[in-house]
Response regulator transcription factor
Amino acid sequence: MSDSVLIVEDDKDIADLIRVNLTELGVETTHQDQGDKALTLALEKNYSLLILDVMLPGVNGLDICRQVREKKPTQAIIMLTAKSSETDRVLGLELGADDYMTKPFSVRELQARVRSQLRKVHVLQAANCEKVDDEDSPLVIGNLSINQKNHQVIFNQQILELTATEFELLHHLASHPNQVFSRSQLLESVWGYHHSGYEHTVNSHINRLRAKIEIDATSPQIVQTVWGVGYKFTPQGVEN
């Protein structure tokens, strides 16, 4: 079954540009320029990826992102924002977007971002379909268990509800305990690309991950900041 993408964009030229270039990737596309209708489609149908513009008639892209994320925690979402609107970029990421692109964007960059998100979708789909064997041992550190086979994270006997990108970020950090990663390194390893200026993507995902795993997100003990360098996973934070 081919991948399907819902393009939510009220600028017809931009929507056509996205649609043409995703078709080249063999992706089926649906376009909607009204926010309220797009929200209904996103909640009722199963799309591999949503590409959401922020400024829309009716319901705006940020509200769509928030409501979809509440109902569909693993839905892949890329936000489109104006180059001058840093607030929209940060808000979109904090509300649950996996990634964002600023207008105007290059065709190659668009295709790279879409491929990256679809790869995560395929991994998640495979995890949901395949039987988990005893040999597929999870990564266990203290009270934290990360099972890459079924994309499940258990901490202190509670299942954490993570997006696909949050899962990949946690798994990458926990697989290299105490190793410090810069934002650029995390962009390349987790998101699959390296573009300067997109560090907000990493920062916001770290914040979202901390909100779900830390006892006190304002004083993180598990995913810690190394000032001036980046982030690291601290094993002591998940031990008894």
